[in-house]
Inverse folding.
């Protein structure tokens, strides 16, 4: 009875708690928050100074008294207090926006998590959700949530092959009858791509780029296959020889060369998963193709590289970056499916 009353006076929410970005879905409203997973706080007092976009802008620019942290690393909680503060902030924003009388923030919360996390890591996410004000917290594996968000029939007796390339992890799974038949969670994804870009240009030009600059390069001119016309971008960093600021003009071909080893590793894991899959499900995958989701799916030509390596059709989901949060949001309205697929709940 109490939970039913709390349900009336709060918005139930689905959350994609990502290493790079956090997205929040509210039933009836859709995606209401889409912000970087970042928190800025005072080093000594631990007072929260900024969350989301404002905190990300501080990365690499903070004085010694302030630290800008990413609460999640490789898809799991690295800083519990910062994660709880970030979740609390977003829950309050959802319940205060657009109404004269703010709702009581005691929502049912569904959170997407990597499929390879340990029981301790799962418990940390549930505890952070409860600390943020959730009355019930359910965890759903990201490949399953992404498949649901992409509109795929996960309960059918047909194999669905989904690859979700996020910020901290790449989730590769074959789904059938509402469960993951075979899957792997590899900690090679967007963050490793940023690191690869930074390392490449440090070695080639002796210039030190910041992580936000590398990420911008990846998004703007990152590619897995050559563009019809080479693209250019001017970046600024610190010259490692002189220690002075320096600008260089970078081509999309150089970024492609930098990203190539990371993309090759991801493709290798996709091939391995295909080889381990039961023959009947492989037949289904050959028929329906491989579905790509996550921010990494937006890299130009990555679908072609995977298709060439696996000899299988590859389809990029509509709005791939929102698939996980949409899946979590859709499960809020489908308690039967939620009870079948959630990996834990309180």
């Amino acid at each position: 009875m109490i939970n039913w009353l709390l349900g009336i006076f709060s918005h139930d929410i689905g959350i994609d708690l990502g290493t790079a970005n956090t997205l929040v879905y509210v039933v009836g409203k859709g995606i209401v928050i889409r912000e970087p997973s970042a928190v800025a706080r005072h080093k000594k007092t631990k007072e929260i100074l900024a969350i989301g976009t404002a905190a990300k802008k501080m990365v690499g620019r903070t004085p010694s008294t302030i630290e800008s942290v990413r609460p999640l690393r490789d898809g799991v909680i690295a800083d519990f207090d910062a994660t709880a503060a970030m979740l609390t902030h977003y829950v309050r924003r959802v319940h205060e926006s657009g109404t004269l009388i703010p709702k009581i923030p005691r929502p049912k919360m569904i959170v997407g998590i990597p499929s390879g996390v340990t029981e301790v890591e799962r418990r940390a996410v549930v505890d952070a959700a409860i600390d943020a004000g959730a009355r019930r917290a359910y965890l759903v594996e990201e490949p399953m949530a992404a498949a649901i968000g992409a509109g795929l029939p996960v309960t059918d007796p047909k194999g669905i092959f989904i690859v979700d390339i996020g910020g901290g992890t790449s989730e590769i799974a074959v789904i059938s009858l509402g469960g993951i038949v075979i899957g792997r969670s590899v900690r090679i994804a967007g963050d490793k791509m940023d690191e690869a870009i930074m390392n490449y240009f440090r070695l080639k030009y002796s210039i030190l780029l910041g992580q936000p600059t590398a990420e911008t390069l990846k998004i703007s001119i990152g590619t897995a296959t050559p563009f019809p016309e080479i693209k250019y971008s001017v970046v600024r960093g610190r010259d490692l020889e002189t220690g002075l600021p320096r600008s260089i003009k970078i081509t999309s071909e150089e970024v492609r060369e930098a990203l190539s080893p990371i993309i090759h590793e991801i493709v290798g894991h996709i091939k391995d998963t295909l080889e381990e899959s039961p023959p009947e499900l492989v037949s289904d995958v050959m028929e329906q193709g491989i579905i790509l989701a996550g921010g990494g799916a937006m890299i130009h030509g990555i679908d072609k590289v995977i298709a060439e390596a696996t000899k299988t059709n590859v389809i990029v989901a509509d709005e791939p970056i929102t698939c996980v949060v949409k899946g979590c949001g859709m499960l809020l309205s489908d308690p039967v499916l939620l009870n079948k697929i959630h990996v834990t709940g309180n």
In short: The radius of gyration is 21 Å. Confidence is low (pLDDT under 50) at residues 1-9. The CA atoms of residues 106 and 133 lie 5 Å apart.
